[in-house]
Amino acid sequence: MSTDAKAPPLAPGRGGQSSEPGPAIRRRKASKAPYYLILPAIIILLVALGYPVGWQIITSFQKFGLMQQFGGSPEFVGFENYIALLGTSELWVVLGRSLLFCLLSAFLTVAIGGLLALLMQRVGTAARLMLQVSMLLAWAMPVVAAMTVWVWLIDWRRGVLNWLLVQFGIDAEGHNWLADPVTFFLIAVVIVVWMSVPFVALSLYAGLTQISGEVLEAAGMDGATGWQRTRYIILPLIAPVLSIVLLLQLIWDLRVFTQIKLLQDAGGVANETNMLGTFIYQLGVGSGDFGMASAVSILMLILTIGISWYYVRSLMKEEN
């Protein structure tokens, strides 16, 4: 007779099943842990963003001017600020100008960034390293420092651009490029694209490094040209990265402020070159009408949500 003790089998539960909780039950019990982990971040986000947005929403329904800044109680005016804004042509001109600038800058940035990403994939290690370091330096440069250099380049009195044109026989001495709204926005587009291309190029290059070389090699053996491989293989595979960088660029270029404000201070005509950011600044800080400025801010927030809604909805569909 064996003396080895054997553990008794677990008593079956109802229906002949083991009483030990299954994997699904264990997952349900542990499913609350991620929510507890992200709860501090959600609280910080609500406090940091919820209060300013809530203040702007409330202020947009009030008459909040200079008197209120010195302690006067704000007057509730309902939708009067929104009605007055929507009834003025200035808002629609600024809105159209901002959307045109946003679309042009964002698509140019993504196109140039994509070409640079493809270039980095094809050049040697030394050339790729030089490109990456150059773009990182341009991207890491503070906006005000970069704008100081750009303003010096296009300055109408002692700028490098006018000096170069004069050297080539073009009479551009003393020409103020910022006084004309068309050339003002062309310069602004160049500056914004120059500052944004490094982020897009490096992000897309990171996506390109995840594409298997065997897939591209097989397509080349099947006779696919470089354009066909880019169009039918590379672009579909990096589409998620491409869509998120395009969305970010649209949002950032719609909210651009520093570059436009510094160009206006350097010689631009504010009333003819305002975009949503500088228009809000002019209403609030310039005119002291924070109620109207808050109303424009809320309209800008709604527009930003509308631009990003398609991408958010596609993300939710993928999760489901």
UniProtKB/TrEMBL annotation:
One of the GO biological process terms: transmembrane transport
Taxonomic lineage: Bacteria, Bacillati, Actinomycetota, Actinomycetes, Micrococcales
The entry's keywords: Cell membrane, Membrane, Transmembrane, Transmembrane helix, Transport
Family annotation (PANTHER family): BLL4140 PROTEIN, DIACETYLCHITOBIOSE UPTAKE SYSTEM PERMEASE PROTEIN DASB
Keyword Transmembrane annotated: yes
CDD domains in UniProt: TM_PBP2 (cd06261)
Name of the protein: Sugar ABC transporter permease
Similarity comment: Belongs to the binding-protein-dependent transport system permease family.
GO CC terms of this entry: plasma membrane
InterPro entries, per database record: MetI-like, MetI-like_sf, UgpAE/MalFG_permease
Keyword Signal appears in the UniProt entry: no
Membrane topology: Multi-pass membrane protein
Annotated compartments: Cell membrane
Annotated organism of origin: Arthrobacter psychrochitiniphilus
Transmembrane residue ranges: 35-58, 98-119, 131-153, 184-211, 232-252, 290-312
